[in-house]
Amino acid sequence: MRDEARHLLPLIPTLLAVADTEHITEAADLLDVPQPTVSRQIARASNILGVDVVERRGRGIALTAAGRILVPYLHRVAVDLEAGLDAMSEHDARARGRISISFQNTLGEDIVPALIKKFREEHPKVTFELDQGARARCLDRLDDGAADLAFVALSAEHTDANSFQLYDERLVLVVPAGHRLAGARSVDLTDTGDENYIAMGHGFGMRSICDELWAEAGITPTIAFEGQDIHTLRGLVGAGLGISILPRLRGHGPETVEVRIDDTTARRRIGMVWSPRTPASQVEAFRTLVVRSGRGLVVR
Fold it and tell me: What share of the chain is helix, strand, coil (3-state, %, to 5)?
């Protein structure tokens, strides 16, 4: 860097203020410094450059021809510096920000942890606020701004504009090992209208799906038990207390049998949902990772 440029750098704010106001007093007010300070810095700039950059004009001042040539370049330096500071701040926000995630209970065992682990490989200082519960609660927190992202069972309202599907999974009818349907290869839900069902409580994603499947089958089953955890429901089925519609489970115990449902809509789509609000940079970075790599991290 030339000596003139190195010495001129600290004087750029003063030169730009004078060029903008064309008045020493107004430039001093703009910079919040005494008027003599502005006058000395202008004189210093002229000495560094070996040419006057301002001249008297009436009761004010104006840029000289040399000043008019120089100022656009000084302005470019200031703009580039601001851009650099913005980029640094954005990087720092990505590195140190906080992300709030709401997710359904069943997604807390593997999906959410796998995504967070992958993200923190590149963003180790980002912290997470995790909240789990019913699907309705997760979406309410997203709408209220309490959550940045929600991982839930997707429905028709969720499109490419506000969600990303990670996977979909087949739902099965889970019955006790000694049940009349335990040996069936598949079942039509219309044949289960007289059975006692064990289901998730209202507000949970699985309950909404079950309600739709029962309506399509034209049945209104008796709900013997309602729960808040899929594993609890499966345990109640294993105890012979009813049947349930649940996601498939690898390695389930001998107390229960999974029977295929003769309905192609007996599936649930799992994905990430976001709000229309402009996300913070660290949230956008996490969302980008999920879209780019999420499906490969989730084994189903």
Answer: 45, 25, 30
Q: How far is CA 258 from CA 10, 51, 225, 245, in A?
A: 75, 89, 19, 9
Q: Which two tokens stand for residue 141?
A: 């927190």
Cβ neighbour number for residue 262 with a 10 Å cutoff: 15
Helices (H), 97-226: 111-120, 135-144, 205-217
C-alpha to C-alpha distance for 5 and 2, rounded to whole angstroms: 5
Determine contact, residues 123/94, Cβ cutoff 8 Å. yes
Tokens encoding 122: 């590149």
3-state secondary structure of 53: coil
Surface-to-core class of residue 101, CB atoms within 10 Å of its CB (0-12 exposed, 13-18 middle, 19+ buried): buried
pLDDT digits (tens, 9 = 90+) for 246-276: 998 877 788 999 999 999 889 999 999 999 9
Residue type, 89: S
Q: What is the pLDDT of residue 294?
A: 92
Q: Distance between CA 27 and CA 147 in Å, rounded?
A: 46
pLDDT in tens, 107-161: 888 899 999 999 999 899 899 999 998 888 999 999 999 999 999 989 888 989 9
Alpha carbon separation from 285 to 87, 95, 129, 288 (Å, rounded): 14, 10, 16, 5
99 neighbors 149 (Cβ within 8 angstroms) = yes
- C-beta of residue 281 within 8 angstroms of C-beta of residue 93: yes
Delineate the domains of the chain, giving CATH numbers in brackets.
3-94 (1.10.10.10), 97-166+269-297 (3.40.190.10), 168-268 (3.40.190.10)
Q: Where are the alpha helices (H) located in the chain, listed in sequence order? A: 3-8, 12-21, 24-31, 35-49, 65-96, 111-120, 135-144, 205-217, 230-238, 281-297
Written as six digits, the tokens of 18 are: 């004078």
Decide if 257 contacts 185 (C-beta within 8 A): no
